[in-house]
Amino acid sequence: GSVGQALGLAPHRAAALVLAYPAMLKFSHTKLASQVEALRQLLPLDDNQVQEIVSEEPSLLARSPTSPEASFRTVQQLLSCSKAQAANLVMRHPSLLTTSPKSLRRMFAALSIWRFSLDDKRQLLHSHPLLFRLSPREVHGRCRWLRSLMMSNPYFHSTLRNLPLPLVGVLLLHLPTAWSRLLYLAESNQEGTMDIMTATQCKASTFEAAYPDYSKWRSFKFPVMYTVGHRPPWRVFNSGLERCRPVPPNPAKQGRRGAVAQNLVAPGVSRLSLPTPAAAAAAAAGA
């Protein structure tokens, strides 16, 4: 009753919302109404939009009225955008309002492993705001793994350095399912046979049909992954971690393709500001 009244929902929709978030039954009509009013003060919402946002993220009603506002202001500050732009962003992704300001700031800082400029980070998060929902450790781990792939393979070094930022965001979001595909392509010397974004986003059945040896390779190389819940390498803290890191390519097998890929690396400082493999080797030799 109180849920339906506060949100203006039909009985069947109110019942569905309570089933999705039973804790809502603990709240009085007054509390629910005040929470809804706080959302209206924060965002330009009509009745339908309030219902949509609460249906997608019912835990908003369990928070203090100032908590969503603090998260909203942090998103706006980090992205250096107008209130209208921030409102549009959180209305499309209301889960951002349930993320603490501290977590939002730490996640933003975690992207610095790739030496993104402030503008680059803001562009990346404008394109893919759900990156804000990842923990700082997860963001750092994914970026480090991609960095190791770049530094171990000339083709991926060139490709990732020149990948547009919106596609970098897609890659980061899909990496838990895509990392083993990219590693397989690198270690089987087939990097250029499938576009990196196709390899990242295609269905498992599509990739396995294109590369029949992939499943056998994965089972042989990562038996430990089948005992730790198929966790990606940046989440595995045992001897299996070393086995999941990209290994440097064999120059004898790279041939002309590897040399061509190396020559494609953009000069100067790029968005993914990392030393070239040759520079890294020279630095190591000097040490």
In short:
With 287 residues, the chain is mainly α. It is built from 17 helices and no strands.
Radius of gyration: 23 Å
The H/E string reads HHHHHHHHHHHHHHHHH
Low-pLDDT regions: 238-245, 249-287
What is the arithmetic mean of pLDDT? 79
Structural class: mainly alpha
Portion of residues in helices? Answer: 55-70%
Gross morphology is elongated
Largest sheet: none
DSSP strand tally: 0
Strand content: under 5%
Counted by DSSP, the helix tally is: 17
Termini, distance in Å?
72 Å
Task: Describe what you observe in this structure.
This protein has 287 residues and is mainly α. Helices cover 63% and strands 0% of the residues. It starts with a helix and ends with a helix.
Protein topology:
Elements: H1 2-7, H2 11-20, H3 29-42, H4 47-56, H5 66-79, H6 83-92, H7 101-110, H8 118-127, H9 136-152, H10 154-161, H11 165-187, H12 196-201, H13 204-210, H14 214-221, H15 239-244, H16 251-263, H17 277-286
Helix pairs in contact: 5-6, 5-7, 7-9, 8-11, 9-10, 9-11, 10-16
